[in-house]
Amino acid sequence: MASRPPGTITVNDGLDLLAEFMGCKEEVEELTNKAMDGVMPLNTSLEERLNLINCSPSDLRAFLKAHPPASRLAPGVRELIRTLQKRGVDIYLISGGFREILIPIASYLGIPMSRVFANRMNWQWDDETGEPTKLVGFDVSQLTAHNQGKPQAIARIRESNPYTTVVMVGDGITDLEAVQVSGGADLFIGYGGVVARPAVAEQAEWYTCDYSSLVFALSCYKVAVIGSGAWACAATRMIAQNTVGQGETASEFADEVRIWARSQHEAINETGENPVHFPGISLGPNVRAVASVEEAVADADLLVFCMPHQYVQRVCKQLLGKVKPGAKAISLTKGMRVTREGPQLISQMVRRSLGIDCCVLMGANIAEDVGAEQVSEAVIGYSDLASGEVFAKLFERPYFRVSLLPDPMGAELCGTLKNIVALGAGMVDGLDLGPNSKAAIIRQGLKEMRGFAKALFPSAVRDDTFLESCGVGDLVATCIGGRNRRVAEEWTRAALSGSPRSWSDLETDLLKGQKLQGVSTSNEVQEVLAARNWEQRFPLFTTINRIVNGHLPPSSVLDYKEGSRAPLVEEEEPLVLPRRNGGVAHWLQPLAAVAAATGFGNWE
Ligand SMILES: NC(=O)C1=CN([C@@H]2O[C@H](COP(=O)(O)OP(=O)(O)OC[C@H]3O[C@@H](n4cnc5c(N)ncnc54)[C@H](O)[C@@H]3O)[C@@H](O)[C@H]2O)C=CC1
Ligand SMILES: O=C(CO)COP(=O)(O)O
């Protein structure tokens, strides 16, 4: 399962310290080095080392007391392990050393005993006291007693844990073996901070003498934003504010934020802003735009999907096999796709096609207002809390308040469906009606948003979600100040004036390259309603869809009535309605022709 975090293996032996304690340091070190340099079989070296050490149980107790775990660890290893654990990475300890010496270390590092693979000492026992009396060798049946034991231990771990990536960290040849066998580790990091072994240094894919460099490199999530429209730019700006300067302080995020910009990458890199979609607002000195989406995601740990919904599938196909294993995604896109199997949310699409976890960020977030740092709220809908927490840190700003919500599907459907209701709100404005009528649309819209989301995912979607920023908050904001509202108002005015204009024409004219999501979403949702015979249960959605496609006049927007088919039945004859200026408009034919020409609802 690709969404599982990668496993990491680290090694700490401690046998040489016990030898020093027992007064045979040099001889034992020599035998350790022979095994670690690969010139003596591991089991022979272990046997000879134990013979030399020959400790009694009380020697062992005294040794453990004199050498508490903290004193036995190389500098930086605890911080490294803590950092990885915080990221949800499973840590194992695989060692040719002995459990008796290693268990206190494992518990100090928070590594469960079930994740310790090490050798066992064999003791002679006193029949009367039941106490161990004398060391008589070691258990040769343990995997770690032999060369190739470490890759075998990893293979065993992988059998019961479907990790995408396993990294081995160690200083000896037997550690390096972990990557040299199929089914072992994916990457070996050589450590030379205590003993530097040339053979290990030469063959390690990554070699370091300082664990703090690993803490730094491994703890820095690299962020890529996929999309460069208005909201993508506002989101990038927040992220960049949170990551700027972090590269120097070994903190959680890498300083640079990469943004995929199909066409404005040069302008973004030259001027620091997107002159087409988000003019006049600087994204941040640590933002770098790239023209290729593959380049944007290469090495990225956190992928922020923010593009008009109809393009996401094509981009996911392009990214197949290009995303770093273990990466996490978040979708800021509002929209859905309808396939033969039924509706598919954008986060589901990302999760299924790329095999990575995907949260969502939804809320009342008009891009320009967020760019101007006006207080805004959003929720992060998550299935995996650890991912949700990382993204909350990435986005949270004093002016951008993020809450975590364990209802990703409810949140995403809110963001998607409110775009349909916003079209209705725009029609109300185009009809020059006042707040009462708009409130009626908002109320009924919210009810249908909840009804639709719960009908699709009855056991997952929560009622409370609709009271969050992603629900009523976003609905109100978009019905007052969104692009869908604005274009629908102009579309209604044009229709009322007798010179109807197409949605795509108005989109080009008014949004200047930004994209309208509501019309295609209305068509997509209507496909679901029609396929499931739900049209009467969602009269506002259905009425808006009929208006959008020219089958009803915009003045019908308030004629929805639950349980009644009256406003929903398509008319046989064109409707003839009085025009506001006293003339007569033939609604059906010209608007149907306009709708056919829009192409909204077609996925790329
Ligand atoms: N603008 C806003 O205030 C907010 C938008 N959203 C949602 O975020 C998503 C992205 O919106 P924006 O960033 O505002 O984008 P936008 O509406 O400004 O559209 C421009 C974006 O579309 C991309 N694009 C245009 N043609 C394309 C093609 N053929 N293939 C691939 N990409 C293409 C452009 O490269 C650019 O990234 C949408 O789902 C929107 O509903 C969510 C909250 C606020
Ligand atoms: O989703 C939005 C605000 O949260 C923006 O909506 P519009 O696409 O209608 O502008």
TrEMBL record:
<dbReference type="InterPro" id="IPR036291">
    <property type="entry name" value="NAD(P)-bd_dom_sf"/>
</dbReference>
<keyword id="KW-0520">NAD</keyword>
<feature type="domain" description="Glycerol-3-phosphate dehydrogenase NAD-dependent N-terminal">
    <location>
        <begin position="222"/>
        <end position="384"/>
    </location>
</feature>
<dbReference type="InterPro" id="IPR008927">
    <property type="entry name" value="6-PGluconate_DH-like_C_sf"/>
</dbReference>
<dbReference type="GO" id="GO:0005975">
    <property type="term" value="P:carbohydrate metabolic process"/>
</dbReference>
<dbReference type="GO" id="GO:0046168">
    <property type="term" value="P:glycerol-3-phosphate catabolic process"/>
</dbReference>
<dbReference type="Pfam" id="PF07479">
    <property type="entry name" value="NAD_Gly3P_dh_C"/>
</dbReference>
<dbReference type="InterPro" id="IPR013328">
    <property type="entry name" value="6PGD_dom2"/>
</dbReference>
<dbReference type="GO" id="GO:0005829">
    <property type="term" value="C:cytosol"/>
</dbReference>
<dbReference type="Pfam" id="PF01210">
    <property type="entry name" value="NAD_Gly3P_dh_N"/>
</dbReference>
<dbReference type="GO" id="GO:0141152">
    <property type="term" value="F:glycerol-3-phosphate dehydrogenase (NAD+) activity"/>
</dbReference>
<dbReference type="InterPro" id="IPR036412">
    <property type="entry name" value="HAD-like_sf"/>
</dbReference>
<dbReference type="InterPro" id="IPR011128">
    <property type="entry name" value="G3P_DH_NAD-dep_N"/>
</dbReference>
<dbReference type="InterPro" id="IPR006168">
    <property type="entry name" value="G3P_DH_NAD-dep"/>
</dbReference>
<dbReference type="InterPro" id="IPR006109">
    <property type="entry name" value="G3P_DH_NAD-dep_C"/>
</dbReference>
<dbReference type="GO" id="GO:0042803">
    <property type="term" value="F:protein homodimerization activity"/>
</dbReference>
<dbReference type="GO" id="GO:0051287">
    <property type="term" value="F:NAD binding"/>
</dbReference>
<dbReference type="InterPro" id="IPR023214">
    <property type="entry name" value="HAD_sf"/>
</dbReference>
<dbReference type="InterPro" id="IPR017751">
    <property type="entry name" value="G3P_DH_NAD-dep_euk"/>
</dbReference>
<feature type="domain" description="Glycerol-3-phosphate dehydrogenase NAD-dependent C-terminal">
    <location>
        <begin position="407"/>
        <end position="558"/>
    </location>
</feature>
<comment type="similarity">
    <text>Belongs to the NAD-dependent glycerol-3-phosphate dehydrogenase family.</text>
</comment>
<keyword id="KW-0560">Oxidoreductase</keyword>
<dbReference type="Pfam" id="PF00702">
    <property type="entry name" value="Hydrolase"/>
</dbReference>
<protein>
    <recommendedName>
        <fullName>Glycerol-3-phosphate dehydrogenase [NAD(+)]</fullName>
        <ecNumber>1.1.1.8</ecNumber>
    </recommendedName>
</protein>
